[in-house]
Amino acid sequence: MPMSEFEALAKNVVRRTLRVRPKENVIVECWNHGLDAAREIVYQLRSIGARSTLLFEDEDTYWRGVETLPTGKLGQVSSSEWAALAKADAYIFLPGPADIARYRKNLPKSQAATAYNSEWYRRAKKAGLRGARVLLGYVTRERATSYGFEFDPWRAMLVRATSADFGPIARKGKKLATLLSKEAEVEITGPNGTRLTLELSGRKARTDDGIVDAQDLKAGHFMTNVPPGYAIVSPDESTGEGTFRADR
Fold first, then answer.
1. By C-alpha distance, which of 167, 174, 163, 85 is closest to 131?
2. What is the rounded CA–CA span in Å between residue 206 and residue 204?
3. According to the model, what pLDDT value does residue 123 have?
4. Pick from 46, 77, 51, 74: which is nearest to 61 by CA?
């Protein structure tokens, strides 16, 4: 059988990001455009002896509901899904929907369709879940058109990035977080004309390194993005001088 283009990605998420163990219960959730990657993730879970459940959100049915049903009938979660979440050890999500322009066009009802989000996160945290949001789910032809991206290079880049070794990223992230946790003046510059100066006040920075470990869970950070790669800290709100230019 030929190797799936998502094999390295799936192994990375299962074995490195979430460190899934045999007999653990894992929920994999996806939309139509993420189904091929989800299939490979389910296979890799089974290959190590984990127990998987695949949740599928059909895009056409989703839009039919958003565009024709009243708000009160959207964003409902079944008791069986809540029960599965309570018993899960890990969760892997390939997000959607594919059509971001349609989402924005129906924004109030699109938001109503995910009104359960805060309750989901509360329950997931209580369950001690380890979670990964696979950002390849945001890579669709519809979104590429909306963002002005070239779809094929964008998709190839995300597949490669998700298949990378996150160990070196985690080590660099910790060093960067240590620097950002100090009191310091920071100057941010860019070739597009950005030149912004601000102050760091010694607040603790955190990283998203693509690995959910015991330290992350202790701090309440049970979801990571895959691919990862940022360190974040809030600067002193009373500072900030200069110019910031976005690339879009």
1. 85
2. 7
3. 96
4. 74
